[in-house]
Amino acid sequence: MPAVILFVAFFSPRVSVAADIFWILLPPAEGDWNNPVHWSTGTLPGNSDIARVDNNGTALISGGPVDIVSILLGDTLSGVVHQSDGMVTADALEVGVSSTYQLSGGTLQIDTEFLLDGTFDLAGVAGTVTHIWRWKPTFIFEITPACITPLRSGSNVHQQVCSGI
Questions:
Q1: Parent domain of 130
Q2: 87-95 and 128-130: which strand pairing?
Q3: Which of 65, 26, 29 is nearest to 44 (CA)?
Q4: What is the pLDDT of residues 23-81, one digit of tens each?
Q5: How many domains are there within the chain?
Q6: What pLDDT does residue 112 have?
Q7: Is 4 among the domain residues?
Q8: pLDDT(5) > 80
Q9: Mean pLDDT throughout 122-146?
Q10: Measured on CA atoms in the order 54, 73, 112, 60, is the torsion positive or negative?
């Protein structure tokens, strides 16, 4: 059995233990996601990390790509991510109560799980989704300000949801 676990961990980097990296820029300042000084480790969260914005702060994504295991907004406090450009790929996105993910540009791809207890704001282009929206494994969506497109979906989601197209 240990050989199998070693094999999986060696060939699947996202199976490895993910590191929690915390957004440390204090509010009311907003800051660039891609600036390492804004993160607890002094490095940008990478494809084996969990990025946590949980200090009432706001992280701005204006470029990319960002490839990450998980983005967690708000656990004990609130958190905001505003994506205005770039490609963000995450296995999971969790938006806690009183927290917001705002997408005004670029593309957001959630590969496994989207847990929404707060607000997912399409920046007024296609509307705002709020409170308790859960996509579980087998769903892969590409999300832009104008369109939510299933790239692979389960039995109850089969079509694009677009606005103004």
A1: 17-162
A2: unpaired
A3: 65
A4: 999 888 899 999 999 999 999 999 999 999 999 999 999 988 999 999 999 988 999 99
A5: 1
A6: 77
A7: no
A8: no
A9: 51
A10: negative
The tokens of 29 are what?
A: 């300042």
Q: Is residue 2 part of a domain?
A: no
8 within a domain of the structure (yes/no) = no
Contacts of 10 (CB under 8 A, 6+ apart): none
Residue that has been written with the tokens 């590409």 in this structure: 142
Query: For residue 148, what pLDDT band results from cuts at 50, 70 and 90?
Result: low
Closest CA to 30 of 67, 72, 62: 62
Quick check: is 12 in a domain? no
Rg value, the chain, Cα:
16
User: 3-state DSSP call for residue 1?
Assistant: coil
Kind plus residue range of the DSSP H or E element containing 4:
helix 2-11
Torsion of CA 118, 102, 63, 115, to 10 degrees: 30
Token pair, residue 147, equals: 């369109």
Q: Locate 98 and state its tokens.
A: 């009183």
> Tens of pLDDT along 80-120?
999 988 888 888 899 888 899 988 888 888 877 888 888 88
- 83: amino acid identity, one letter: Q
